[in-house]
């Protein structure tokens, strides 16, 4: 009985929890914008909340004629030099629909997110800008897009990634394509960076060695050896993918830089090697007969003195492309990195 009484007493004496009162929501009234020939109507609060540009604009003194821009459809704030489709995309982000909130996904196309990035950058909407960058990063931007968008909207990460990816291609894209998309200055700088990283790669290959599979036909670039073979000096078996069996002395690689190959139209750097300089690590003697070899792909005879080194898709990535890119584009990258620190 006493236990029940105590429980009853505790229920009657417990103080009720305070009721949390909701905060007042103020939208700041409606604002009208004119972009191109379209008039948009929206609550003004989030423009002021996310952009110092609009916060300042909304507090400018009224003109001598007493007219207040943006107060109605007949007196909109005219935004010159902007695209209506970009502004519409920004409104979708600032004022998502109930369907967007319920699904948890704001569905915008790639070009729409680019429009959001454009305006959020120009109007210093930092949170919106970061979100647009995150969404576009999921869209599998190609290297050209990363460089172009990175420069236009000051996104250091994209700019640096795009440069590295382009320089890491082997062969690099046609010079005409680079100039068309990126301009002559950056195209020439990219070629210089690739040339430098290729040279560094050649220096690194000298002490680390290479495999039979990396020796190619200088005519068709196909692999000259698809199976293992024996060293002609000591008869040691050399597997086609064994990078520890062979080595090349410093200076044995010849570098060929083609500004534009007339056959393929591709800009590329290639390495030529004389098999006379390719040594067996077991006996430190030349591992090959000094004769001509038949290419298994194009059936052409290839002299032992003009084999081509096949770098493969990721050959340049083993070089120092990021360092060379920083040397050439470091100041520009630093400017873009400073944007988010403003």
Automatic annotation (TrEMBL):
What Gene3D superfamilies does the entry give?
Answer: Potassium Channel Kv1.1, Chain A
* Annotated stretches, region: Disordered: 1-22
Q: Which domain of life is it from?
A: Eukaryota
List where Polar residues composition bias occurs: 1-15
Q: How is this protein named in the record?
A: BTB domain-containing protein
Q: Which organism is it from?
A: Candolleomyces eurysporus
């Amino acid at each position: 009985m006493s236990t029940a009484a105590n429980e009853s007493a505790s229920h009657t004496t417990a103080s009720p929890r305070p009721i949390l009162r909701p905060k007042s929501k103020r939208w700041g009234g409606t604002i009208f914008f004119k972009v191109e020939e379209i008039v948009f109507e929206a609550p003004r609060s989030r423009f002021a909340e996310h952009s110092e540009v609009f916060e300042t604009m909304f507090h400018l003194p009224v003109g001598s004629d007493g007219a207040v821009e943006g107060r109605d459809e007949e007196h909109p704030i005219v935004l010159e030099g902007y695209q209506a489709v970009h502004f519409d995309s920004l409104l979708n982000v600032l004022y998502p629909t109930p369907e967007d909130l319920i699904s948890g996904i704001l569905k915008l196309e790639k070009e729409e997110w680019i429009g959001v990035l454009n305006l959020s950058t120009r109007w210093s909407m930092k949170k919106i800008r970061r979100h647009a960058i995150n969404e576009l990063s999921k869209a599998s931007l190609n290297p050209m897009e990363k460089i172009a968008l990175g420069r236009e909207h000051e996104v250091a990460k994209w700019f640096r990634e795009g440069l590295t990816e382009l320089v890491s291609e082997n062969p690099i894209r046609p010079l005409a394509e680079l100039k068309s998309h990126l301009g002559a200055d950056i195209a020439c700088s990219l070629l210089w960076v690739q040339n430098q990283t290729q040279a560094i790669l050649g220096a690194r290959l000298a002490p680390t060695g290479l495999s039979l599979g990396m020796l190619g036909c200088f005519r068709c670039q196909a692999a000259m050896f698809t199976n293992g073979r024996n060293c002609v000096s000591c008869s040691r078996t050399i597997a086609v993918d064994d990078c520890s069996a062979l080595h090349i002395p410093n200076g044995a690689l010849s570098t060929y830089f083609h500004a534009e190959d007339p056959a393929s139209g591709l800009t590329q750097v290639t390495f030529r090697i004389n098999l006379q300089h390719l040594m067996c690590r077991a006996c430190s003697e030349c591992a090959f007969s000094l004769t001509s070899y038949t290419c298994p792909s194009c059936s052409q005879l290839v002299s032992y003195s003009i084999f081509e080194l096949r770098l493969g898709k990721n050959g340049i990535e083993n070089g120092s492309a990021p360092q060379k890119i920083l040397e050439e584009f470091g100041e520009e990258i630093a400017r873009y990195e400073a944007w988010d620190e403003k």
